[in-house]
Specification:
Largest sheet: 6 strands, antiparallel
Strand content: 25-35%
Oligomer: single chain
Strand order of the largest sheet: 1-2-5-4-3-12
Radius of gyration: 18 Å
Helix content: under 10%
């Protein structure tokens, strides 16, 4: 419904609220990946803090090798950072980051970002790692609000492997 006009605050207002069962802290995703998290709820609308906001962070893991990290908002709509990663860590440009599930808020396995740039300056102990959010947080029309208190439905591959009622085994 609305986007915050302050360039330093990355929030949007959505048209679902308390009457729809929305509550603070719920993860928000779209068809591509993680968009943000509900931070305030009214009767018919809610405010979502985008993952690119400076105050937002989400635990992630690298799909290629399961290295865990925290993806933090950078204040730019097209950029996240990974902080406190040793420069010797096995990370590469193109690595896909997904939610780790360790925070108990974002379910494991949702796409978050892709590593797009790395600097491994030997004068610093930590690498500078820049990532692009995969959900395109500045260009979306519809989102889904997840309820971390409920189990997720099976993924399509899992659902098709289960025989439907009335099917012969």
């Amino acid at each position: 419904l609305a986007v915050d006009s302050d360039p330093f605050i990355h929030q949007v207002v959505i048209d679902r609220g308390e009457r729809n069962g929305v509550f603070e802290g719920q993860p928000v995703v779209n068809d591509l990946g993680v968009v943000g998290q509900v931070v305030s709820v009214g009767k018919t609308t809610s405010r979502v803090l985008l993952i690119t906001d400076l105050s937002h962070a989400v635990p992630v893991r690298v799909m290629r090798n399961d290295i865990r990290a925290i993806a933090s908002g950078s204040g730019n709509l097209d950029e996240l950072t990974l902080k406190n990663i040793p420069r010797s860590a096995d990370l590469q440009e193109g690595d896909m980051l997904v939610t780790s599930g360790l925070d108990g808020i974002f379910p494991a396995g949702f796409p978050v970002a892709k590593v797009i740039h790395m600097e491994r300056d030997t004068t610093y102990s930590f690498a500078r790692i820049i990532c692009a959010p995969v959900a395109g947080v500045e260009h979306f029309g519809e989102v889904m609000i997840l309820n971390p208190r409920e189990a997720l439905p099976p993924r399509p591959a899992e659902a098709s492997a289960t025989p439907a009622e009335g099917d012969k085994p």
